[in-house]
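REVIEWER CHECKLIST
Item 1: Sequence provided? yes
Item 2: Single chain? yes
Item 3: Sequence as submitted:
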Amino acid sequence: MSAPPSAARGSWFALLACFFLSGFAALLYQTAWTREFGAVFGTSELAVATVLAAYMGGLACGAALAGRLGPRVRRPVLLYGLLELGVAAAALAVPLAIRAATALEVALLGGRELPANAGGVASAIFYLLCAFVILLVPTTFMGATLPLLARHAVRSDREVGPRIGALYAINTTGAIGGTLVCGFVLLPALGLRGTVWVGVALNALVFALAAAVARSEPGADDAQGAVRPSDEIAAPLAHAALILPIILFSGAASFGYEVLWTRLLGHVLGGSIYAFATMLASVLVGIAAGGAIGARIATSPARAARGFAVAQLATAGLAFAAFRALDFVPAVAAQIGAGGRGSLGANAALAMAILVPPALAIGTTFPFAVRILARGASDAGPASARVYAWNTIGAIVGAVGTGFVVLPALRYAGTLTATCGVNLALAAATALLLVHGRALLGVALAGAVALAFGVPQEPWRLLLHSPIGGGTTNGTVAHFAVGRAATVLVLRREGRHDLRTNGLPEASITSKDFPPGFDPVARWLTALSVAARPALRQMLVVGLGGGLALERVPASVQSIDVVELEPEVLRANQRFAAWRDRDPLADPRVQVRTNDA
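Item 4: Structure as written out by the authors:
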């Protein structure tokens, strides 16, 4: 016998509360673990990307397992609660596993004078294997939770889209809270260990709530028995399985945008953990709102397919418009008091104005895809698992591929054009294969033609803006490169070259013909070090910058080791070697490694 409607509504709201707390705790863990791994692997782009890939790979594994094993589970809500308890236990073990990874790295790499160059195959494999093994258990448990709750929550065919979308939206809303509270409150007040313990407490609370829901509905926790067979099932779409590769590419494009926006807005908001939390929370706000909107629209496969195509068109259009507006961001930031040292409210308003509109369109795609794939209420859990797994794999490809390959090769304008092109292609594919809508196909093709003839320029006003002081630097751009970790600009002005990374001033390199009397302080850093300790024969310089600190190293120093995080800084110095008075990289004593010191 099914539970009364009021009891069913009560258990539904309790599950929404549980999933909110699950998302909150998951973002606490992700932030804390990324910082903990940074102490072992460093903060090079390779190290951060491999930890993120391992985290999301575990989520995809969990979703895939839940999709295969979920139909056999008789008490999905109770199992969900037990998985949350398992996440808590595994989270407590992560620090011990990280210590073991540290010992392994010391055993393999210890004793060397310098770290290996970041980006090597051996380093990538080592980082990925360690992170994946350490995070496999908790992230697999996390990835299995949505399919399990979907299996319990969906009781009729018309509830597939709305309920899956509601779960997705509420979990993302929890992630927003976790991002902001972790970045602004918990990490500064409690540190990494204290933050993890807060996540553990939340997981334990979720287990208690889920167990109470499972006890309050005897027999109703079995979703198969709760599905109402009398409900009319909407006609499935032909070739509905094609939504899986489509959602994979959609996930790749979405994370490509996230990498792009984070790098660009860093020129105004800075690179602190507060700035990153503000930008990530803004993206999640849009995704949560989009998930809620998609939940209301996705009441049938046909409506969901049309909505998915429109969402891809809207993502491309809104992302293109946001990119074109970036040159106005420095002026707006100055007007409202936003920037690297601006107020929290102003920074949040600026980030949300740029990031929320395209993220809102992106957020609708998940409930649309699940509704397209699911063949009725009994298929809601497996369908959501498959969509989640494919979308997460795409997200891994998008995040890693954009940061390592696309951005360095195409720079910002090219990356934006390519990503918008992917959205338009997905809209066309959906319209052609799933909707059979000529109008949507025509709009997608027209958008592709407009994009081909209207490729945007780089947002130079933004790129020349500095988060320190909020000013825009004047000068002629002599060198511009988008590296894996930073944007590197060299500006020519008044007989010297100014090197900047992410808008931050690194060095001012004078030419051979520059009048005497200009002597940067950086040139004295190494000379004074030797004066303080005349017997030293080896020197380590952290950060190459413009190489000024290397110009006056006394001859008594026999070897100079330089560790630089961004390879493009090294290339910028090499490009202007003949122009400067003295090329420090030509010194045979200097050896450079591109890694995190």
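Item 5: Key structural point noted by reviewer: Residues 160-216 form the longest helix (57 residues).
Item 6: Recommendation: ____
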